[in-house]
């Protein structure tokens, strides 16, 4: 990425979540990004815990003015299943922050999405790093949302690739496959009515996000770049639950969160690494990562017990339907991690610097 990215007005929906937290910290570090709102969907943990995690992290990053909203508290049709074994009981591994000073806004997240899109047509980018429950509900209330949003980026799905929840299903989609199915059905209708290709959602599936495989050495490099007084060593031979002693609070938070993620991946025979899916999607949403996509017609299985939550992509037009998504097909993890390190280190060094106002006008 050689040229400076264009300004982005961003709506974020997440289920924070360790990789969600990393992505949100990165977004706070991007000067060209105006965070309009962060909405909280149940997934990795319940919606209230997600919102508390979001508020606490925004406050740590000096962005406490960014409003945080809660929408749905359950998937559309099935019981909520959370994943504390992956992200820890509070959703952010071993990381500890004080409870946020403020409470979540009392307005419904779905109303916020609809109002913002109507008031700012063609101006807002949507980043969806969670089950698609809130977005599906927003599409029910405002079917013109595909035309009103400038850009949509979704982290979810897996195509001809091993799932991370079942053999074929990715977590975000599997938590609420009915919502994902509604979203792609809405874009089916929009595509049939002539929605421009650039407004089709960019879908970031596991086969591409798992290329963003963070090594523990990243945290050592981040701490050094952030000016920490002592080396930050996160090693496979450390005792589980070892807590960071980094002098910088953001570095300490990220190290404690990601150590849990390293340990989880090792427990599932993937090595002492962390797949940071949501950072991949965030960088694409705000124009800082290079990538390529392929048009496809995407659908979600909601009936089969064996394939429940599986995403299916028709890249060859065999269904005879126009593309309803652009599926990520290439990216550059090495450049992405270099970008992430630079931005997070700058944010960590300047946590006490004044910040501007954010929020939907």
Number of strands: 11
Low-confidence runs: 352-359
**Fraction in beta strands:** 15-25%
Helix proportion range: 25-40%
Average pLDDT figure:
94
**H and E order:** EHEHEHHEHHEHHEHEHHEHEEEH
Strand order of the largest sheet: 3-2-1-4-5-6-11-9-10
- Major sheet: 9 strands, mixed
The general outline is globular
Radius of gyration equals: 19 Å
SS class: alpha/beta
Structure annotation, total helices: 13
Could you characterize the architecture of this molecule?
The protein is an alpha/beta fold and 361 residues long. 37% of the residues lie in helices and 16% in strands. The strands form 2 sheets. It has a 9-stranded mixed sheet, with helices on both faces. A two-stranded antiparallel ribbon has the order 7-8. It is globular.
Question: Secondary structure elements and their pairing?
Answer:
Blueprint: E1 8-14, H1 18-29, E2 33-40, H2 47-60, E3 68-70, H3 84-87, H4 109-119, E4 124-129, H5 133-141, H6 145-148, E5 151-155, H7 171-175, H8 177-192, E6 202-204, H9 206-209, E7 213-214, H10 217-225, H11 249-267, E8 274-275, H12 277-285, E9 291-300, E10 311-314, E11 325-331, H13 333-349
Helix pairs in contact: 1-2, 1-11, 1-12, 1-13, 4-5, 5-8, 10-13
List keywords for this structure.
361 residues, alpha/beta, nine-stranded mixed β-sheet, two-stranded antiparallel sheet, 13 helices, 11 strands, globular, disordered C terminus
Quick gist of this model?
By secondary structure, the chain is an alpha/beta fold. It has helices at residues 18-29, 47-60, 84-87, 109-119, 133-141, 145-148, 171-175, 177-192, 206-209, 217-225, 249-267, 277-285, 333-349; strands at residues 8-14, 33-40, 68-70, 124-129, 151-155, 202-204, 213-214, 274-275, 291-300, 311-314, 325-331. The strands form two sheets. The chain has a nine-stranded mixed β-sheet with strand order 3-2-1-4-5-6-11-9-10, with helices on both faces. It has a two-stranded antiparallel ribbon with strand order 7-8.
């Amino acid at each position: 990425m050689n040229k400076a990215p264009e300004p982005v007005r961003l709506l974020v929906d997440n289920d924070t979540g360790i990789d969600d937290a990393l992505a949100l910290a990165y977004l706070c570090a991007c000067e060209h990004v105006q965070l309009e709102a962060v909405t909280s969907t149940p997934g990795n943990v319940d919606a209230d815990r997600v919102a508390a995690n979001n508020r606490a992290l925004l406050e740590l990053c000096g962005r406490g003015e960014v409003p945080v909203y809660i929408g749905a508290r359950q998937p559309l049709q099935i019981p909520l299943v959370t994943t504390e074994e992956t992200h820890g009981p509070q959703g952010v591994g071993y990381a500890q922050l004080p409870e946020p000073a403020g409470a979540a806004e009392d307005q419904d997240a779905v109303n916020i999405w609809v109002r913002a899109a109507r008031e700012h047509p063609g101006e807002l980018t949507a980043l969806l790093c969670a089950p698609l429950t809130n977005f599906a509900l927003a599409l029910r209330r405002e079917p013109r949302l595909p035309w009103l949003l400038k850009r949509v980026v979704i982290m979810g799905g897996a195509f001809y690739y091993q799932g991370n929840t079942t053999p074929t299903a990715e977590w975000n989609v599997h938590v609420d496959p009915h919502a994902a199915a509604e979203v792609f059905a809405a874009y089916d209708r929009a595509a049939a009515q002539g929605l421009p290709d650039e407004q089709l959602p960019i879908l970031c599936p596991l086969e591409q996000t798992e290329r963003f495989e963070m090594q523990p050495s990243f945290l050592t490099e981040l701490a050094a770049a952030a000016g920490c007084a002592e080396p930050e060593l996160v090693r496979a031979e450390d005792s589980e639950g070892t807590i960071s002693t980094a002098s910088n609070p953001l570095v300490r938070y990220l190290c404690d969160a990601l150590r849990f993620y390293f340990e989880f991946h090792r427990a599932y025979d993937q090595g002492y690494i962390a797949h940071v899916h949501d950072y991949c999607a965030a960088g694409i949403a705000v124009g800082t990562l290079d990538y390529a996509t392929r048009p496809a017609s995407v659908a979600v299985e909601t009936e089969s017990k064996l394939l429940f939550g599986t995403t299916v992509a028709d890249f060859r037009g065999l269904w005879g339907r126009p593309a309803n998504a652009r599926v990520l097909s290439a990216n550059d993890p090495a450049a992405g991690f270099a970008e992430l390190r630079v931005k997070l280190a700058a944010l960590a060094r300047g946590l006490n610097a004044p910040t501007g106002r954010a929020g939907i006008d």
